[in-house]
User: Fold this.
Amino acid sequence: MNVIEIAQLAKSSTTKLQALPEEQRHMALESIAEAIQNNINAILDENKKDLDEAKKHHLSTAMIDRLSLSEHSVLSLANMCREVADQEQVVGTIVEQFKRPNGLVIQKQRIPIGVIGMIFESRPNVIVDGAALAIKSGNAIILKGGKEAQNTNRKLFDIISHAIERILPQGSVSLLETREDVSEMLKLHNFIDLMVPRGGSALVDFVKKNATMPVVAHDKGLCHLYVHEDAETQIVIPIILNAKTQRPGVCNALESLILHEKYPQNKNILEALWASGVELRGCPKTQALYPHVISATEKDYDTEYLDKIISIKIVSHQSHAISHIQKHSSHHTEAILAKDPLVIEEFMNALDASAIIVNASTRFNDGGELGLGAELGISTSKLHSYGPMGAKEMTTTRFIVNGNGQIR
Assistant:
């Protein structure tokens, strides 16, 4: 089938998907989980082909990290499907109800958006995340991954397709594979209700400029962490190292560190980062504090490194930290380590980000960690969703008006 035919089929499946009983959605997700478990070796074989190609073409360490699957991560995908299946029902639930003076009973009911198009880079797990969340939320989904994960994407899609073919309507989950498909897909606003780009800024900008349907962008994560002068010393270094070094190539990894000049352990922080293999790029105050810091440029403070590199700024007041973040933020994740509740409140109220994290790692801005089971991605748009998108964030609401003869 060509792109238009795939989109038409997806659109025709939407009314059937919305009407499905919750038990059938659960059955589909359980079937996918079982099929993934039964095909771990086949999935890893295809992933190895992609990794071999990636290394041959000298793709970045961050790209290879995002591309890589293991037995543990494949099993986690199966477990994610079961976790999403076991969550409370989303489709058809009444989220609000009230009665008007004229006797009309007004309800707001949660319903699917319709057909979601998703274009993403690197991460083959997105095939499973996207399919599982679309099934739970009653949407059809058309997925387009990057060529660097083509073998793994195709294998995962084939497994999902066979698992759901007797349970869900045809066209519920589809896969596109060529770059030409993307341009065609972006024109199909009559069939695709929402477009979700997830990847680098170049991809997101292209989709924003060319899509004829609404776009929810999942853009870069230039995540900041501010250490106030009263921060609890026992938690600071472990949080910073977790945020920066656990997985440097992901969007919720720490990229820019701001230190209050009166915090007593600033040098210890720099030493710990350096000992963990992190390249330090800082302001003159940071350079004066530690010899291994190289000079940070203005471009450094605007860079999502996705690597073991960090930009650092030392400030004399929390307002300077806030101003710095406001200037360089990508509206993804901003964190503060502090005790003073007034300082924390000022930080939260002054910043616009999809997640504000207080006294914990930036790595917690994640659908699984926030209890969503999985995520379509982390939206840096405000419409239709802000932050990690789970099944509930992939729905909208409509009004149900119940009367007994009222006229206006």
Observations:
- The mean pLDDT is 95.
- The first strand starts at residue 94 and ends at 99.
- The radius of gyration is 23 Å.
